Predict the structure.
Amino acid sequence: MRQRFAARAVVVGDREGTVVPDGVVDVEDDRITWVGPAAEAPDPAGAAATRLTGVLVPGLVNAHAHSPMVLFRGQGEGLPLDRWLREVMWPREARLTPEDVEVAMTAAAAEMLRHGVTTSVEVYFHPERIAAAVRAAGSRAVVANPLIGLPGFGTFDEQLATALRLAAGGDEVVEHGIGPHAAYTVPLPVLRDAAAAARAHDLLLTVHVAETATEGDELLAAHGVSVPRLLAAHDVLGGRVLGAHCVHMDDGDLALWQEYDAAVAHCPGSNAKLASGTARLRDMLDLGIRVGMGTDGPASNDNLDLFEDLRLAAGLARLRERDATALSAPEAFWLATGGAAAAIGREDLGQLTPGRRADLVHVDTDDIAFVPIGDPTDVLTHLVWSVGSRHVRDTWVGGRQVVAGGASTTVDEAALRADVQTRALRLARG
Ligand SMILES: [Zn+2]
């Protein structure tokens, strides 16, 4: 099927911040075939035409999430981390059923699509149910099977075997990966085996790294080196490695990330809410480290709105460096689109360029938040600083419309909301 989308402007989602005024995006099946000014567009050859009054941007890529935790949104607010985990999160998670995860992920995927997020990296229990939810909602995901030593979730060997079994059934809609929790919770030999398996099968390996200032203290005392150095020494860093958070990284740690071409999922919303710290985003980008924006789980953000995180990323980078040039608006938007796709090793996503998947988001510009526009790059400036996900009107994934006029076309959001509410209360009650 051929489709032509014409819009007031097309935002490509590249690092340079390319904006095409009065632009056209041609799509054949689930791929983009042509992007450029309407005046230069090829013969539409009978393509179905969609004329949009606002701007088209790439579907956003959320590089780090535990989205089924919509079940725990706002719970334990204000508690310190250790009490929040012991008294609120772990008792609830111990009661989770596979159905809870599937319902919650379906609701979360619909929430993300309404916010213009078409792909997410998910690390959570019951990955088959997460995959089913993603397919039902019509989004995309990289679903990493968690490796974590918790009662009821099997041995590390069994968890790794599950990850590899699932990976064999993946495709461009749901790709499976491996998600060892962190170096302070997963033994180093397990991390080494997981990384070797990930490399052997070209899977994404995603692991929490240096989220808090003190989480690596025991490892530092035992081994005398930082977690990034330990990961390098144990052969974990080669391949498609995505470190989540990476807040507390010294120059040597960042040099390792550069050397191994490891990527970073930058989660400023979660890092701010949990007082974890401010990552060295400018330094990472100057070193050529691949970085993508992540929301983290909705129990520690508390939403799945990547527009908020990219604005926060720009604000916090500027505050950290005390420099209004520390992160430009085009760079901030790129970190949630083309940059995030590169960070997760999916060059078929994140940009509106020929050959990539037709994941498109229509942002309504009929709003004072989009005024004035003189230079075309004003569109990007407004997208980052003034416009939010509330202006997202329509979303397509692989050329298929999944949000129309701000509402899901695939799932019943009101019914899901009621279902999540009932399940969340049951999980809290015990
Ligand atoms: Zn996380």
Q: What stands out?
A: Residues 64, 66, 208, 244, 296-297 surround zinc ion (CB under 6 Å). The chain is about 35% helix and 25% strand. The chain has a mean pLDDT of 96. Residues 2-58+357-408 form a domain with the Urease, subunit C; domain 1 fold (CATH 2.30.40.10).
